[in-house]
Amino acid sequence: MDPCYNFMQRSERWMQERAEKLRGQIRTLFGTCHDMSARMNLVDSVQHLGIDHLFQEEIEDALTSIHGSEFRSSSLYEVALRFRLLREHGFWVSPDAFNKFKGDDGKFRNDIANDPKGLLSLYNAAHLLIHGEPELEEAISFARKHLELMSQDSVLNPPLAEQVKRALSLPLPRTFKRVETICYMSEYEREAGNIPILLELAKLDFNLLQHIHLEELKAISEWWKDLYGYMELRYIRDRTIEAYAWSYMMFYEEDFAFTRMFVAKIIALDTVMDDTYDAHATIEECRQLNTAIQRWDKSAISILPEYLKKFYIKLLINFEEFEHQVSDNEKYKRGKNKGDVASSVECYMNENRVTSEVAFAKIDSLVEDEWRTTNQTRLEHGTLLPMVQRVVNFTVSMVLFYDDRNDAYTFAALLREIIESLFVRPAPI
């Protein structure tokens, strides 16, 4: 056997053993941490470092205690942190919590404008607003204004300066957790009051998961290679890695390996459909394919054009395999940039006879409205929070793929740095 392989296996075993030991130490830390401020910071650090999936029970117990305990802090940072943590996990907290930082005129006091850490905490927390909360809209505007001034004047020290810059681009509740984790791992040891064992576990866990994800990437690449070779559809895009990355953004945890691969394959097959409908097939061929899919039977092959018959066969076969895999799974038992397609922006422009600026503003408004609906769902369906979180993850993935008016799914180079950070470059230990 290859000695290099043996070394890698030993190294992985060591990381697993070390990670398990650290998990035990951190569980003890949760049990002995009784100060509310320290407990909130512990939960926040665990989440920010991407290891919250290892401590779900501990986090739930801590937040239940925090929600039920009297809280009289006069720190903007702590009040906003409590607000964000509780709302993220489906606990109701009133925006009135921030009234203590307002003057008699109902506006935020100017003295808190000199507290960058508190302002950043307020800015991130306020983005968990729901419909009908103008006071949180005001909080966002107030915090953003002063954070932008501080950022422009370069008065912020690292790592706070980097965190403010990222938040102004995309607030923390709307970021993709794993990308934010990569950034925060390099910043955490510079944070006051950091806990070294949290960072060590975060790096070990990231590398262990990365190894799993790399193996899955190899497997789905082989699956696509076989599928592509059989179908002989040269016009379709190879977006295997992007499809896997999209699925990963919703289900990155080790326990979701089956779901991750299942969704990645669905997205890849959907890409074949998308390219066929949008970039190649005639209107009549599109209708024929649609009829065949509605019938969902091998007998429908005869109505398809020759070049789509193999794709249809593979589509049926793959979904039959998906059905068997799901039924055998133990846990279950328990656009425009493709050349000739109008974008949603152009459709809105044409239908309403407005400029692109007006169309973008309207779509941004719709997106903002849906974020509030998503935030409200967390609070109204607390018992379904794990499922709701997957919807949030999907929403965040859309931001990552289609941010800044770009289509990173079509133009994969836009995602190259992120893909390499997630799947190629391990965290330094």
Automatic annotation (TrEMBL):
Protein name in UniProt: Terpene synthase N-terminal domain-containing protein
What's an example of a GO molecular-function annotation for this chain? terpene synthase activity
Span of the secretion signal? Answer: none
User: Is the keyword Cell membrane in the record?
Assistant: no
Q: Could you tell me which residue ranges the Terpene synthase metal-binding domain spans? A: 225-332
Alphabetized, the UniProt keywords read: Metal-binding
- List, in alphabetical order, the GO biological process terms annotated in this UniProt record: terpenoid biosynthetic process
Q: Which residues form the Terpene synthase N-terminal domain?
A: 9-168
The UniProt entry, under InterPro entries, shows: Isoprenoid_synthase_dom_sf, Terpene_synth_N, Terpene_synth_N_sf, Terpene_synthase-like, Terpene_synthase_metal-bd, Terpenoid_cyclase/PrenylTrfase
Q: Has UniProt tagged this entry with the keyword Metal-binding?
A: yes
